[in-house]
Write a structure and sequence with these properties.
The protein has 80 residues and is mainly alpha-helical. The protein contains three helices and no strands. Helices cover 70% and strands 0% of the residues.
């Protein structure tokens, strides 16, 4: 897809230099940059969602105290 956007001169110049150094076209450079940004954004979104799940303070995800004591007593009697 062809599109037109405004990019400040200093950023454009730097992007041109990097694209030239990488021996890729301007389009390829911007495509890669956008793809990388989208990947970072998605990773941050996944992290945010996981943090929301794990910061839930209800105790339903904690190990039952009786189960914990039973497992501990079994492990204490095991020879390592």
């Amino acid at each position: 897809m062809k599109t037109a956007i405004y990019i400040p001169d200093d950023i454009f110049d730097l992007a041109e230099k990097i694209a030239k150094r990488l021996n890729i076209s301007r389009s390829e450079f911007y495509s890669r940059a956008i793809k990388e940004y989208i990947g970072d954004f998605n990773s941050e979104d996944i992290t945010r969602q996981l943090n929301a799940v794990y910061e839930d303070n209800d105790n339903s995800s904690k190990i039952d105290e009786g189960l914990y004591r039973a497992q501990k007593s079994v492990l204490e009697n095991e020879e390592w």
